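Hey L., structure's done. Input below.
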Amino acid sequence: MKNQLNNEADNFEFLFNSNYQFLCLISLAIVKDKDVAKDIVQDFFVSYWQKRNSILIKISFRAYAVKAVKNLSLLAIKKVEKENSLFKNMSIQKYDEQEFIDKPNSRSIVLEALNKLPLKRREIFISAIINGHSYNEIAESKDISINTVKTQIKRSYTFLRSYLEKVDLRSF
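Output:
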């Protein structure tokens, strides 16, 4: 059993080493983002390893991998387009800036809402929104993917909007 697992791992390592860069190029041609392409190919290999006993490849591994990576890349583009569409369609309630500043408790309520965010999410949100760092800068500094940054910021906005609607700043 142990020899079989070692043999499978060696075979997998060979497939990974001999196809990784090529598959990254395939994905990069579609998604136009090096980090996203790497994530997609890594996700493919993780999925392949997890399903290795149930996958029946009727063609070469490379042909199978290329088709899978192309499909995953197209799905990633659709996901980004959907997220962008959601961002555009989100209605951010507008407050008169001076009216907001004049209300003594409004700042503390916003700070309270920010403090209710999970620590890592709050750090990402503050880094992007308050400090003006780009998603790429945040991703590099935190050693996470740009998609993770986007997701965390989207979740922050959703939480903050929901929290502030419950508190209803207009009543102050």
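The CA atoms of residues 17 and 144 lie 23 Å apart. Residues 2-31 form the longest helix (30 residues).

-- N.
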